[in-house]
Amino acid sequence: MKLVRYGAPGAEKPGLIDADGNIRDLSGKIDDVAGAAIAPESLVALSSLDAAALPLVEGNPRLGPCVTGTGKFVCIGLNYADHAEESGLAVPPEPVIFMKATSAICGPNDDLVIPRGSEKTDWEVELGVVIGKTAKYVSEEEALDYVAGYCTVHDVSERAFQIEHQGQWTKGKSADTFGPTGPWLVTKDEVADPQNLPMWLKVNGETMQDGTTGTMVYGVAHLVSYLSRFMSLQPGDIISTGTPPGVGMGQKPPRYLKPGDVVELGIEGLGVQKQTCVADK
User: Fold this and answer.
1) Which among 181, 199, 175, 183 is positioned nearest to 257, based on CA atoms?
2) Residue 140's pLDDT is what?
3) DSSP 46
4) CB-CB contact of 33 with 95 (8 Å)
5) 1-10, 67-76, 161-170 — which is least confidently predicted?
6) pLDDT higher than 80, residue 130
7) Which spans in the chain are helix H?
């Protein structure tokens, strides 16, 4: 299934995408795409519904983040060897973990707001992993049993805030709108191999990133297992798994986003995002 949340910010309703690409209203079946609704048994029940019998959503509503109730937005840094190289950094011997504030989460096509004082706002297309049931001390062999599904994530970064200021990366990753998520939460049964997904990103129509999850250093199963050693993962938590090369910081000379730029990105089978960059007020 492809689950969506549609409507005005803060008032989204749950839905699913039918065979013709239309949104069908799920609000009579679940409260939202969150919590118990994305547990394995709940997803099995939802998959048995006749999508054509659900109310058709008319028009072209705004899409919100594809999952809500996210307690943790966990990101993995330098998880593609070729991206580490373009960043001038070694491949880490263990996954690099940092947090992105959940207040950064927004819809896949919402404006990307460049924060005040930013001169180095950068792009990163990433595979998002959405947790469906509590994971704690899980083995790598069992790890995917705890995954509800996958989505496209744009891990927007302000490089000066992230790297040139003192302290942790989080402050360069957490501005409002720095976490577009969706358009869909694609349940894991539709993704034959999360380590074989082409991904891309364009700025103003020019392809900047063209990679695949196949070049990840640490794959999805390893990351879920690894993280569960240090924190319990809860339903709705998102793991953003790193980006392939082609980010603005790695261009020669470096290139960063400015108001008016349009960013498009996508992952095969997981949908496409499009954001227009605007200055913060």
Assistant:
1) 175
2) 98
3) H
4) no
5) 161-170
6) yes
7) 40-47, 81-86, 159, 220-227
Given pLDDT bands bounded at 50, 70 and 90, which one contains residue 85?
Answer: confident
Does the N-terminal peptide bond of residue 253 adopt cis geometry, omega within 30 degrees of 0? yes
In contact, 111 and 66? CB cutoff 8 Å: no
Residue 261, amino acid: D
What single-letter DSSP state applies at residue 19?
T
Residues in Cβ contact with 198 at an 8 Å cutoff, skipping those fewer than 6 apart: 210, 211, 212, 267, 268
**Nearest-angstrom CA–CA distance, 205 and 265:** 10
Beta-carbon neighbour count of residue 5 at 10 Å? 28
Is residue 62 a contact partner of residue 6, using CB atoms and an 8 Å limit? yes
pLDDT band at 14 (very low <50, low <70, confident <90, very high): very high
**pLDDT tens profile 201-240:** 999 999 999 999 999 999 999 999 999 999 999 999 999 9
Q: Is the model's pLDDT at 80 over the cut of 80?
A: yes
- 148 Cβ contact list (under 8 Å, min separation 6): 38, 39, 40, 43, 67, 130, 131, 132, 133, 185, 187, 188, 235
Query: Within a 10 A sphere around the Cβ of 229, how many other Cβ atoms?
Result: 9
178 within 8 A of 99, measured Cβ to Cβ: no
Map tokens 């840094």 to a residue: 77
Burial of 269 (0-12, 13-18, 19+ CB in 10 A): middle
